[in-house]
Amino acid sequence: MSVAVAPQQPSATERPAARLRAGRSRQDLVPALLFLLPAAFGFVTFYAWPALRTFYLSFTDYSLLAPPEWVGVQNYAEVLGDRRFWKSLTVTLEYVVINIGVQTVVALALAVLMHRLTKSTLIRGVLLLPYLVANVVVALVWYTMLDAQLGIVNSGLELVGLDPVAFFGETSTAIPTIALVNVWRHMGYTALLIFAGLQSIPSSVYEAAAIDGASEWRIFWRITMPLLRPVLVLVLVLTVIGSFQIFDTVAVTTKGGPIDSTRVIYYYIYEKAFQQFDFGYAAALCVVLFVILAGVALAQVKILRAGDSDLD
Amino acid sequence: MSTIAPQAPAPRVARKEATDRRSSAQRSPLGVRVGVVTALAVVALLWLAPLLWALDTSLKLESETTAVPPQWIPESGFTLEAYRSVLASDDLITWFVNSTVISVAVTLLTVLVSALAAYGFSRCEFRGRGVLLALTVAGIMVPPQILIVPLYRQMIAMGLVDTYWGVILPQLVAPAMVFILKKFFDGIPRELEEAARVDGAGSFRIFWQIVLPLSRSILAAVAIFVFIGAWNNFLWPFIVTSNPDLMTLPVGLVTVQSTFGVRYAQVMAAAILAGLPLIIVFMLFQRQIIRGVATTGLGGQ
């Protein structure tokens, strides 16, 4: 922000350079096009065009069999009055809050512990291992382990005299269970991201703090957290958006049940589009979800930046 | 929140390796360190317990998987019975082949296409570059899953439903990887390329023979993470394939999951087999992967 230059000044001084660049620009255009062409083709065909189509389809009644029929904002009106949509939204939010809340706090603690105590590659490797296992496989393993009658966890609970818990089979426990299973899979990855951020903090800062006799607790709040904030923002934005994508675990374990308690937004979109073939409505749900995700990402960046400036 | 250190000299030790003997006598921070490291190790073991349990279960007889109380070592010993029955049906092998073909193709093509685009962004000046770059960054923020509905329709129109290409092509668009590679290419000094240009090498030769070899480490990191993503991908392959002969492992596992029923040993054996290639990749490239988390996960910061 300190380099606020008058807008007209650079254009005057840069004129010769700009002319030079313009000459180069013509020369570069052909190779540039060739380099970018494959990616641009893919981006347009599988990203930009489908994105525009989603928007268009959300205003139509479309079931794949007949051509889309324009219905205006009818889908959106229906979405707003759709009890199941609101339910799926709250379920997804509940999932994201538990998933991200637990994951971020524990991953941060693990990363700080690793940073201050051990540089062991082995421990980092162990933490990362669950991330390499597919969501689907992770879900299968935990589904088996947490089975209400035959799972090993409930056998363990019985051994110590507790009542068995139907982890996936109870409306109150299903979403927390799914959220924590995915925390297990993803936490090591998140911890390593934060760890990488910690390593970019110069060690001289810690040495100075140690000479001043600051406690570890104080060091954490006064040095680590403020300096880590940019990385933490990035990690949070990425993991929150990723967390909203929850689908695999639900598809393997509960399939939306019991009684709608785990019908997350993506599962609802999937059901609408690929089981009920209501593509127009599903497209409207996608657009609404997109708006929500964009809002969440913006809000996060804003909130965490606001905290940042306090420290200067 | 004014937590002041109880003993002035003590915290100073927590700094680096136990070099300060005096204070170690005072509060034995070495002991604390050993204690914490041991605790971390125990946590690490608990962390892996589910995977170990899956492996253990896969080596049991079906009748002993639900023994009460649960046992790590089954009474009649370990057996490969579950693996034998899982591999006896051709399905798993077919899916394994499909997963391999698709993941390898996705990895090679994504790395190639992304590297080309990244190099174009990094080295060529042209009108609209800023706009395209902004689009790339926007593409990172928009999760591609949100496009499944029109994408599926498009696959029907292109006749790609239930084909390898139908699974592969949409996975090739990786704006994040383009961005990471561009940042890396930006850091490569241009002198080498200019020298080659003076010698008459064209843009593609320079890219292929000078820039790519210099970028091996980042290309490897990107390739590994693209491969992990492709191998584990579920939603898109699940939607675009309905023919069991074309399914990938995750999709196949989910569709037959119900037929396995409570045959835990077989479920676990299939799960272990599905996870095995990545575990092997991990053992081979552990260091690169751990480093790669930072380079690919944080957008090449």
Automatic annotation (TrEMBL), chain A:
Chief localisation class: membrane
Residue ranges annotated for the ABC transmembrane type-1 domain, each copy included: 89-300
Residue ranges of the region described as Disordered: 1-20
Topology relative to the membrane: Multi-pass membrane protein
Positions of transmembrane segments: 29-49, 95-114, 126-145, 165-184, 227-247, 279-299
Keywords: Cell membrane, Membrane, Sugar transport, Transmembrane, Transmembrane helix, Transport
PROSITE patterns for this protein: ABC_TM1 (PS50928)
Family of this protein: Belongs to the binding-protein-dependent transport system permease family.
The name this protein goes by in its record: Multiple sugar transport system permease protein
Organism expressing this protein natively: Kineococcus xinjiangensis
From TrEMBL, chain B:
Secreted listed as a keyword: no
This protein's record includes keyword Transmembrane: yes
Compartment(s) of residence: Cell membrane
Superkingdom as given in the UniProt entry: Bacteria
Spans traversing the lipid bilayer: 30-53, 92-119, 131-152, 164-185, 206-231, 264-285
Basic and acidic residues compositional bias, start-end: 14-23
Identification of the protein by name: Multiple sugar transport system permease protein
Segments of this protein annotated with the region Disordered: 1-24
Protein family membership: Belongs to the binding-protein-dependent transport system permease family.
Membrane topology: Multi-pass membrane protein
Any one of the GO CC terms: plasma membrane
Domain ABC transmembrane type-1 per the UniProt entry, residue ranges: 96-285
Biological process, per Gene Ontology: transmembrane transport
Assigned keywords, A-Z: Cell membrane, Membrane, Sugar transport, Transmembrane, Transmembrane helix, Transport
